[in-house]
Amino acid sequence: GAGVSQTPSNKVTEKGKYVELRCDPISGHTALYWYRQSLGQGPEFLIYFQGTGAADDSGLPNDRFFAVRPEGSVSTLKIQRTERGDSAVYLCASSFVARGGGPSPDDTQYFGPGTRLTVL
Amino acid sequence: KNQVEQSPQSLIILEGKNCTLQCNYTVSPFSNLRWYKQDTGRGPVSLTIMTFSENTKSNGRYTATLDADTKQSSLHITASQLSDSASYICVVSASTSGTYKYIFGTGTRLKVLA
User: In which band, very low, low, confident or very high, does the pLDDT at A12 lie, cut at 50, 70 and 90?
Assistant: First the structure.
């Protein structure tokens, strides 16, 4: 597709359950990011991948959260033993390169619409 | 501690009026600064990107300024339209030894009224 897609768009689960959130980045983008956004807040960084490897996972709140990107394209964010505090919108973004500096717009992050996770 | 603070938290203006949103940051070492627009229920969309040496950058009715000395940026919206109603998020990236951090502000929620 033309943009970043995320599925499902909404997920309602019960406390203690396991969930998987999927992100399809823009074709050719090597960097992929996961963020969590609570109501009225800016996105909070979770993890980013450069290719297949997690280049920085310092934002993952605890070991219940895990993400994979086995073939360097689609990524899955996995949350075990969900808690009510995990309720948020989970945003995925991709960029052409993870440079972050210089005048090139190559590392502009393109965001998906997010998955709204509700833990009851 | 790397932080990005935005003001005001929310703003209501009439259609056709101008407005300015503020972003102050304490991010080091600074790499670049972006403004994003986030419509309700959507992901953020990049409006402008500025590096250390750039003072101003325009994108249509949006003009961003950057003062790297005072670590302040502003986003000026000219002749506002109803479609400008959204959250505007300031994002500063820091670069350290080849790794990059993206620090997001909490955003300014703009409401444009007819």
Answer: very high
Q: How far is Cα B56 from Cα B64, in angstroms, rounded to an integer?
A: 6
* pLDDT tops 80 at residue A99: no
Contact residues on chain A for B101, CB-CB shorter than 8 A: 45, 56
Return the structure tokens found at B113. 């009224």
Among the partner residues B49, B95, B107, nearest to A42 by beta-carbon distance:
B107
Q: Name every chain A residue with its beta carbon within 8 A of the beta carbon of B93.
A: 100-101
- Is residue A71 exposed (0-12), middle (13-18) or buried (19+ Cβ within 10 Å)? exposed
Reply yes or no on whether the pLDDT at A103 is more than 70: no
Q: How far apart, in whole angstroms, are the C-alpha atoms of residue B33 and residue A102?
A: 11
Q: CB distance from A10 to chain B under 8 Å?
A: no
